[in-house]
Amino acid sequence: MTSAQADGGQWVNPLRTPDDKRLPRIAGPSGMVIFGVTGDLAKRKLLPAVYDLANRGLLPAGFTLVGFGRRDWSKQDFEDYVRTSVENGSRTRFNENVWNRLAEGMHFVKGAFDDDEAFERLASLMSEMDTTRGTAGNWAFYLSVPPEHFSSVVHQLDRCGMAAPRERQWRRIIIEKPFGHDLASAHELNEVVNQVFPEHAVFRIDHYLGKETVQNIMALRFANQLFEPIWNANYIDHVQITMAEDIGLGGRAGYYDGIGAARDVIQNHLIQLLALVAMEEPASFSPRQLKAEKLKVLRATSPVEPFDQTTARGQYAAGWQGSERVVGLREEQGFDPNSLTETYAACTLRVNTRRWAGVPFYLRTGKRLGRRVTEIALVLKRPPYQPFQEGQTDLLTNNAVVLRIQPDEGVLMRFGSKVPGSTMEVRDVNMDFSYTEAFTEQSPEAYERLILDALLDESSLFPTNQEVERSWEILDPILNYWSQHGRPDEYPAGTWGPDSANRMLEANRHVWRRP
Ligand code: BG6
Fold it and tell me: From the candidates 107, 207, 238, 269, which is the catalytic residue?
């Protein structure tokens, strides 16, 4: 064991001071095995996040990181790989001492998912680490692999006894999306995982829930008296949830072709945002209470028909992204020129509760759109009576509360104000809260928060199997309809999606915001 010790299961950190706010948030003795460690996500997000946690003093001194993959790598090769990814992707400054301590606990196990011997080697490495580095039998397995491999990895972990903790130990599994491609496949995956890991040991990642601004939805709603009274169908006319990206799909064909924008983003990130915006107040933020409220509101949520009028999908064609000329999806390397995969998806959902009856929730996402922005806009109704003369309110639109998830994280309120002058002319103005102006602390990356939460057994920010399945149930009818009706419309790269998306809102006399 190192300077820090496991004392009857209680973690004793030698550096702690009584007023250190990090105290309850320092992970106890543990290690993590990453499957898919050579993949893009691990390189860009997971490995830098592990380093950032170590750098912030939130990992135990003996933390051990094991990579599992097919490359013929030595310990040193793995360290070099992680170091490059950390140097390129970490949020916090590189610190040689922190790195050296973390690198001591890095190991690589070479193997494929059907290689029994490799998993046996992994099991014996873990036992060795339990004694030499004090990981104490506490392990998280991070599956950053395509879903077709979930089953083999889970069975191997089971077969080698790695999934079953002894007394006072824990074993947890962290699973990356996509979690299925429809309700039936998600259900099957859940069964495979739950046969080996009990639900309390399963941490399904939806990285949007790890974002500070997403957690702020709950702070804004439930720590204030200002918003909740208007947060309902009496005042809100409709809600727009947008996740727009300016990037295209170059290099991601393997993952994206055949999946598309609705499965990639609406099923998980956007439906989770809807749940947080629309749910009732939980009695506390305990995982049980919070998840119960989310599930309840998802059970009340359904897609609005007819889908030819209430949904839209598109595929980007060549166009201009800023000053750069970019190719269309079908010219992207790896995509079938006849691909029907949508890169833009929009749909209309309703939430059948007293709070939200009659309020459309419009969800949209797309690649190669005008700019990168994620926001939730609650657009309010017009006042029932306006004692102004004709023309005085021509520049006044509906009031709005806009939760800006990223970038320019913050909250914006749009309302009318008198224009200085001798007439009662009113027009829109914005009141703007910006995270970067209000706080000096930089927000942690979503993956830092989520990896740490999984090590701490804090599951509030991880969707349950029921939430995942319910989200598919909401989306499946739309996907089925699309699969039987033609192909996605085209939209030029750099624009805000296909015309059908605008028509979808026009029917209700609404317009999409141009963020
Ligand atoms: C992922 C999607 O879940 O989220 C990607 O698979 C998308 O297609 C990414 O690019 C966007 O994440 P963020 O945090 O940059 O908004």
Answer: 269
Cβ-based burial of 191 (10 A; exposed 0-12, middle 13-18, buried ≥19): exposed
pLDDT in tens, the chain (515 residues): 333 444 344 444 444 455 556 556 899 999 999 999 999 999 999 999 999 999 999 999 999 999 999 999 999 999 999 999 999 999 999 999 999 999 999 999 999 999 999 999 999 999 999 999 999 999 999 999 988 999 999 999 999 999 999 999 999 999 999 899 999 999 999 999 999 999 999 999 999 999 999 999 999 999 999 999 999 999 999 999 999 999 999 878 888 988 999 999 999 999 999 999 999 999 999 999 999 999 999 999 999 999 999 999 999 999 999 899 999 999 999 888 899 999 999 999 999 999 999 999 999 999 999 999 999 999 999 999 999 999 999 999 999 999 999 998 999 999 999 999 999 999 999 999 999 999 988 889 999 999 999 999 999 999 999 999 999 999 999 999 999 999 999 999 999 999 999 999 999 999 999 87
* Tokens read off for 201: 């040991």
DSSP 360-387: -EEEEEESSBSS-EEEEEEEEPPPS---
Ligand 1 binding pocket includes 264 (Cβ within 6 Å): yes
CA of 267 to the centre of ligand 1 (A): 13
Q: Is 269 a catalytic residue?
A: yes
307 alpha carbon, distance to own chain's centre: 26
Residue with CA at minimum distance from ligand 1 atom 8: 264
Spacing, Cα 360 to ligand 1 middle (Å): 25
Q: Does the predicted model carry a pTM greater than 0.90?
A: yes
For 514, the 3-state DSSP assignment is: coil
